[in-house]
Amino acid sequence: MSSTAPLAAEALTPRSSSSSSRTSLFQPSLTLSGIRTTVKYRNQEVCTSAAAYHQSALLHTQLEHSGASSTVHLRLNNIDPEAPPFELGDTTRALWSALFPYFAKGREAPETLQAEIVLPSEVLHQALLALGATHQELQYTLSRSAIFQLFQYASAERTPLPFPYLPTTAPSSLVHPLRPSKPLPTSPLYSRLIPHLNSHFKLAVVGPNDVPLLHGWLNDDRVDEFWQERGTLEQHEKFVAERTADAHVIPVIGSYVETTPEGEMAREPEPATYSEIYWVKEDRLGPLMDVRDYDRGIHMLVGSNAHRGPHRVRAWMPSLVHYCFLEDSRTERVVAEPNAKNAKIIKYMESIGFKQHGTVEFPHKTAALMICDKADFYSLCPF
């Protein structure tokens, strides 16, 4: 995902519960541009949303309760009758933006949501189908799983086509798919609104300026217990340089970003995690398991003591896995091999959809082989 100047944004959960009704701007990621979404809350629940796009188009949604069931009514208005016709891609992106607030409620989000089109609109009908909605008579059923699988709509750019499948043996004799070029150092990869923290969590590629930060984290006794990478600043400069040059791994810093109600950055991003995202087939783990071409692996640590705890894990760990599934749609599994003695991290991983598949032996540790299947992850949606 590419970085652009963000629109005004606010977390889904209102910052103050003193008012039973309020309206605020909503931004699912830090990179979404061209769409301005406004959300009205009543008693801290999303009751309406409006996405402005396409010069003068306004896509309006309203949640209506009827007994135990709820339905979102959709209406697409064109304020300027002389404006160009609605384009399906733009309308689908705006519809996703207008619907996302109903699902961005963490574990309280509904698995499905019913929707109806108020004013007949063929482009709105096609946009609903593009979001994976099933259609029966006048009602559509939207899936939470589909909405999160289509999170690329929160990107500033259109979703790219998958990189072509081209088997290669370079630079070794191992046959694996040719991989796309790695993102450059400091490139933004992913960002997502974290409702329960009233902030965004973002991932970016490690750059040279991150070395001192990583140096401090890797020398922390808590981190060194499992990572065993204690060293000098020069050694950690080499540590980053090696991973930057390695084609199969992306070193990543995860940070929290707080915004004001007007969408401006409230303070400097707070770095919290370091991760390595790698292609398993080209990794040391590959020969030790039944590996698939597009399995993605992760190494991870929480470096900041100020950002530890289960409520923080719910922010950064699912985001890391979510990025892996989004980055290449052919990735069906995310794999990790934490130290089998690290019961805490294994428990956290199981809470977001990982399952243990025995152990694997490395010279320096016995590791738990943890695998998260895409179907399990999106069924659970552990956000």
TrEMBL record:
<feature type="region of interest" description="Disordered">
    <location>
        <begin position="1"/>
        <end position="25"/>
    </location>
</feature>
<keyword id="KW-0808">Transferase</keyword>
<feature type="compositionally biased region" description="Low complexity">
    <location>
        <begin position="15"/>
        <end position="24"/>
    </location>
</feature>
<dbReference type="GO" id="GO:0019290">
    <property type="term" value="P:siderophore biosynthetic process"/>
</dbReference>
<dbReference type="GO" id="GO:0016410">
    <property type="term" value="F:N-acyltransferase activity"/>
</dbReference>
<feature type="domain" description="Acyltransferase MbtK/IucB-like conserved">
    <location>
        <begin position="201"/>
        <end position="250"/>
    </location>
</feature>
<dbReference type="InterPro" id="IPR019432">
    <property type="entry name" value="Acyltransferase_MbtK/IucB-like"/>
</dbReference>
<comment type="similarity">
    <text>Belongs to the lysine N-acyltransferase MbtK family.</text>
</comment>
<dbReference type="Pfam" id="PF13523">
    <property type="entry name" value="Acetyltransf_8"/>
</dbReference>
<keyword id="KW-0012">Acyltransferase</keyword>
<dbReference type="InterPro" id="IPR016181">
    <property type="entry name" value="Acyl_CoA_acyltransferase"/>
</dbReference>
<protein>
    <submittedName>
        <fullName>Acyl-CoA N-acyltransferase</fullName>
    </submittedName>
</protein>
